[in-house]
């Protein structure tokens, strides 16, 4: 979820939290602080609020919030007629643990009819850390179906402190780039995605980010932007300025490329290629659940809420 949980997404999970008796688990969804305690059923009021929580992005800075609202709005405005309304259960759209130390929101809109969009998935997570402070993760991804072989879209911003963040921005390929040079040229060279990556990598505050998962490193593109950005101690406003002046423009440009060159363009996919894409996409989606959520989510949020959210995500991913 980096997706929300993927969306724990392309990131390795944070350090294990202290035992539930000392401190509630960090990271995302709103599971209960103790894995063995039962979860609360949402009240009617909280159920009514759940649909609106996602677009609030309530725990991040103003530039971070503006960026996420802009990206989600751009996708929904452009692809809106192709997308069904979000139909997730209220206790998955928004949830939190009893201690109030971890909360999150999940938003999914599936493609309809002849749309090339399989689904778009957005999420945010907020949790307190044992060291003090909080961890905030916001993510947006869009998956295409096997009527096209164009890349998917992935964006995730993880802020572990006021002065440190990890950025992941990519159009993950859905074909082998070694055996498909035209695909590499069409989606990565002609779109000049590399220039966007280099622009952010040249920031003095930026350094490459390497996922601990070798699998994750294999599924991203050669132009993937995976950076750790850190400002000087005590200068949170410096990081917000970087988000507003550098990260946001690049993210909007890359999303625009995806909307124009991937989501809006018809690709000739024959039956054999369609079957290959279905198999490949299925593997990627299963790995997303296993790597991003399968082990970390129950440990951090307890079995009841973890199972509830994971069951919904498995259904969305079709795995």
TrEMBL record:
Signal peptide: none annotated. Pfam families: RCC_reductase. Residues 12-27 have a biased composition (Pro residues). Gene3D superfamilies: 3.40.1500.20. Residues 1-47 are annotated as: Disordered. Residues 28-47 have a biased composition (Low complexity). It comes from the Eukaryota. This is Red chlorophyll catabolite reductase.
């Amino acid at each position: 979820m980096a997706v929300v949980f993927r969306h724990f997404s392309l990131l390795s999970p944070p350090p294990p939290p202290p035992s539930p008796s000392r401190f509630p688990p960090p990271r995302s969804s709103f599971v209960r602080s103790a894995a063995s305690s039962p979860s609360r059923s949402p009240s009617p009021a909280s159920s009514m609020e759940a649909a609106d929580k996602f677009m609030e992005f309530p725990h991040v800075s103003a530039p971070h919030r503006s960026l996420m609202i802009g990206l989600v709005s751009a996708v929904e405005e452009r692809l809106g007629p192709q997308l069904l309304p979000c139909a997730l259960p209220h206790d998955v759209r928004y949830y939190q643990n009893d201690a109030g130390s971890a909360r999150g929101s999940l938003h999914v809109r599936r493609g309809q009819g002849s749309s090339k969009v399989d689904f778009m998935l957005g999420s945010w997570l907020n949790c307190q850390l044992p060291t003090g402070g909080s961890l905030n993760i916001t993510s947006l991804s869009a998956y295409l179906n096997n009527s096209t072989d164009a890349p998917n879209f992935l964006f995730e911003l993880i802020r572990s402190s006021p002065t440190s963040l990890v950025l992941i921005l990519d159009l993950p390929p859905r074909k082998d780039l070694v055996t498909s040079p035209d695909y590499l040229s069409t989606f990565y060279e002609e779109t000049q995605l590399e220039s966007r990556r280099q622009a952010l990598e040249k920031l003095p505050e930026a350094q490459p980010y390497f996922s601990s998962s070798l699998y994750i490193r294999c599924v991203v593109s050669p132009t993937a932007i995976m950076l750790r950005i850190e400002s000087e101690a005590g200068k949170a406003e410096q990081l917000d300025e970087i988000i507003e002046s550098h990260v946001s423009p690049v993210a909007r440009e890359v999303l625009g490329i995806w909307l124009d060159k991937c989501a809006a363009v018809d690709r000739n996919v024959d039956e054999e290629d369609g079957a290959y894409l279905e198999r490949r996409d299925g593997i990627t989606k299963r790995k997303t659940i296993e790597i991003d959520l399968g082990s970390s989510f129950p440990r951090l949020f307890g079995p009841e809420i973890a199972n509830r959210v994971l069951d919904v995500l498995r259904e969305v991913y079709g795995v």
